[in-house]
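Hi everyone, sorry if this is the wrong subforum. Our group has a chain we'd like a structural model of before ordering constructs, and none of us has done structure prediction before. Sequence below.
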Amino acid sequence: MLLPLGSIVSLYCASQEVLCQIVRGISPEEPNNATLITWQERVRKRYGFYIGVGLAFLSCLLIGSSVILKKKGLIRLVATGATRAVSAGEVANFGAYAFAPATVVTPLGALSVLISAIFSSYCLGESLNLLGKLGCIICVAGSTVMVIHAPKEEKVTTVVEMASKMKDTGFVVFAVLLVVSCLILIFIVAPRYGQRNILIYIIICSVIGSFSVTAVKGLGVTIRNFFQGLPVVRHPLPYILSLILGLSIIIQVNFLNRALDIFNTSLVFPIYYVFFTTVVVVSSIVLFKEWYTMSAVDIMGTLSGFVTIILGVFMLHAFKDLDINQISLPHTHKNTTPAPAPEPTVIKLEDKNVLVDNIELASTPSPQQKPKVFMIDS
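Answer:
Right subforum, don't worry. Here is the predicted structure as tokens:
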């Protein structure tokens, strides 16, 4: 007889009675290494969130530093190092989605912009003005608030649970709406207004990016289950997610490059970050229902941290070309040294006799000048 989880079972021994509660069920398909799986589950529940956040920070560090290596990539060795840094950063980002909720990992991607700006200032000699430094501090503050208030436990731990979540009616309707809206934007709106409106290409990238994050999340769970010894190779979901991930990356990179070719980079990246993170967070709420167990305080804290990160990214990009530093700020104390007074303008009036003499000299012709004769013919 199969009993549901949480059931109480009485065990009678020769001398005493013991009450046991069912906390985990093992199907016949699963291996008998229940002790190893239980130990891994304890580690995941206790440290999985912090491992995911740490991998997200490592990903931002590697991706942000790769931008600097690309700029300095004048020789082949440095260019190879940039490629390796990008690859390692994407692998760390992949692992972060496997351990931490997407609501936390996706907004933390703004830290790669921050790290790139800081490294550019110190390694490449590029100027980072006062507003840029304040934007970096605001990004760090917003990220800290989000990590504190974000959900700590993962709602999906196996491939079977992931497949069940993706079959949910709410997520199916949400995914269909995203696909239909994306097709309308690609084939109807983008050919007409894509060259003039910056939001068209960015919305397409953001909508497609939500599918890529969902696929990465599912593949991360698949890899984790594979190392736990669970039978995931025969399940069709990993192959479907791999196909979705490949198609979404191709479409996303294509339209993002179009936006970067037409519009200003300092506007594309902040707007893309806002739309992409918003769509991913909404998709995560619909699919994984991560916010259903959060309190109102944690929800408001997460939203406040997200808005704070948006403001920091906006300040870092929008005002990066302005010449603003500490010297241009108003001073605290008034300047006690008075400015030197301008010298008074003295208008010298000539004497009356001098004026008369000057008039006479001006009216008297000089010897070198000849008299002018006018001839009138009648």
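For your construct planning: The CA atoms of residues 335 and 341 lie 15 Å apart. The first strand starts at residue 8 and ends at 12.
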